[in-house]
Specification:
single chain; 314 residues; alpha/beta; 12 helices; 47% helix; binds guanosine-5'-triphosphate; binds magnesium ion
């Protein structure tokens, strides 16, 4: 119980996720409240449900499949809004469970090389900072490499996160060669006995072939030192970009085979259903989700909790 004058407790990670997912007017949880006023799974209710799922970014195919699974054997049956949320949560959690997979650091691979890519401003550098803190907290010796050599500010930004995480840091001068820096970073990480090397990269739009070729070059150069590296090739996606995430995954995956995804900004105006669409289309693991700019705002992806927040089920 709180006493007078005490500050309210900070919202938990789950609460922030839930709040974020209900910010958008297309938020699923709120929209579900308007459906099922007839308390029956009739044609109109089923159509409205499908529409709500599409508006939440799940894509037509998934929206149809989920609605069909729920309506099966329950057609025209009475259903409470409570039960509907539970059913939806279970269907969505089942899809998402396939992509819930922690980022496993193989201690046999030293250093374990993580390359992080994505379009501009999705949260790559911030996510690397948060990840470095987590991994350092788990006892790993971590090095961060400022592979975004385009902007001096980007190098500074990563340096700040490195010092917060007490991670080693390597950079080159602004405008320097990103692939060359990645190579040097791996050499240095080896020499210094690092467990994990995380390489940041500049933001690049997925349809700019020159920039995608540069990313491929970074991978090629790393492989000269270690054919198995990068051991994790992560794409950072901004959840508020919605359906464009599909084409981002498609293009990056075609260029440098991805091993996993991280979804940020779920505290923003994300509708959240995009994760369901991505799960069905690519089945790539989602390692972490982000709900803010702070160091503790990155958490492992939990399918059940996410589905609960998305549907507003208890
Ligand atoms: N609300 C919120 N903001 C975030 C989250 N993750 C990152 N940000 C913010 O998004 C902005 C961009 O983050 P960066 O980490 O610089 O993104 P980036 O992908 O490295 O950007 P470029 O290097 O310019 O491509 C910053 O203001 C971050 O604080 C998140 O989960 N939630
Ligand atoms: Mg950056």
């Amino acid at each position: 119980m709180r006493t007078f004058g005490e500050a309210p407790p900070e919202p938990t990670f789950f609460e922030r996720l839930k709040q974020g997912l209900s910010k958008s007017t297309a938020g699923l949880s709120d929209n579900l409240a308007g459906i099922l006023t007839r308390k029956k799974l009739d044609t109109e209710t089923v159509a409205e449900l499908e529409e709500a799922l599409i508006r939440a970014d799940m894509g037509t195919t998934q929206a149809k499949a989920i609605t069909a699974a729920i309506a099966k054997n329950r057609y025209d049956a009475e259903i409470s809004s409570y039960d509907l949320r539970q059913l939806l949560r279970d269907e969505i959690a089942m899809i998402l469970r396939k992509i819930q997979q922690p980022l496993a650091i193989d201690r046999g691979k030293t250093p374990f090389v993580i390359l992080v890519a994505g379009v501009n401003g999705t949260g790559k550098t911030t996510t690397i900072g948060k990840l470095a803190r987590r991994l350092a907290g788990d006892g790993h010796k971590v090095m961060l490499a400022a592979g975004d050599t385009f902007r001096a500010a980007a190098i500074e930004q990563l340096a700040v996160w490195a010092s917060r995480a007490q991670a080693k840091f390597i950079a080159t001068k602004p405008g320097g060669d990103a692939a060359g820096l990645a190579y040097e970073a791996l050499e240095l990480a080896r020499a210094e006995g690092m467990d994990v090397l995380i390489i940041d990269t500049a933001g690049r739009l997925q349809n700019k072939t020159g920039l995608m070729a540069e990313l491929e070059k970074i991978v090629r150069v790393i492989k000269k030192l270690d054919a198995g590296a990068p051991h994790a090739m992560l794409l950072v996606l901004d959840a508020t970009t919605g359906q464009n995430a599909i084409s981002q995954v498609e293009a990056f995956h075609a260029s440098v085979p991805l091993t996993g995804l991280i979804m940020t900004k779920l505290d923003g105006t994300a509708k959240g259903g995009i994760l369901v669409a991505l799960a069905a289309k690519f089945a790539l693991p989602v390692h972490y989700i982000g709900v803010g700019e702070g160091a503790d705002d990155l958490q492992p992806f939990d399918a059940q909790a996410f589905a609960t927040a998305l549907t507003g089920a208890a």
